[in-house]
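Re: that chain you flagged

S.,

Sorry for the slow reply, it's been a week of failed gels. I finally had a moment to sit down with the sequence you sent. For the record, here it is as I used it:
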Amino acid sequence: YTIERLDEAMRSLGDLATRDHLTGTYNRRAAEEHLAKDVKRAEHGGGVFSLALLDLDQFKPINDALGHRAGDACVVHFAAVLDHNIRAGDWIARWGGDEFVVGMWNTQEGRPTKQVLERITEDLRENPVVLPNDEETHLTFSAGTCRWRPDDDVRGLVSRADVALYRAKAEGG
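Prediction finished late last night. Pasting the structure tokens below so you have them in one place:
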């Protein structure tokens, strides 16, 4: 019994260290660990890796006007939509606030990264978030993506995705 309880406590601590408490996705610390492993894998020819950095559009006005519970509902809904639309072997993490990262493998042929983002967009269009006041609202997001290249380290990869994200926001999302 004691060993089972200790094992359960260790699993719980592991989840607390790697999971975002609100969304259940990986947290930033776990994302950075995943990125470091993915960059190493890509360096050793383990496949093609792409990173997407996603940010909810108009999140601050929702949070300011309707409160943090409404903002939390938006973040939780967005995380669930992301989780529902990524492929097996890919991963998502809450990077901070209303920003998420998505790590995707083997995204060279065709445009699977674009296809994933289009699925997410369509899912958000079809499924509005229900706010705590029972009002429904449709979420939109901006995204910046980049494919790993041999001169990238984790910081460089995230930086390129971040530049692409801000370019997308400047162009209207």
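What I noticed first: The longest strand covers residues 49-56.

Talk soon,
D.
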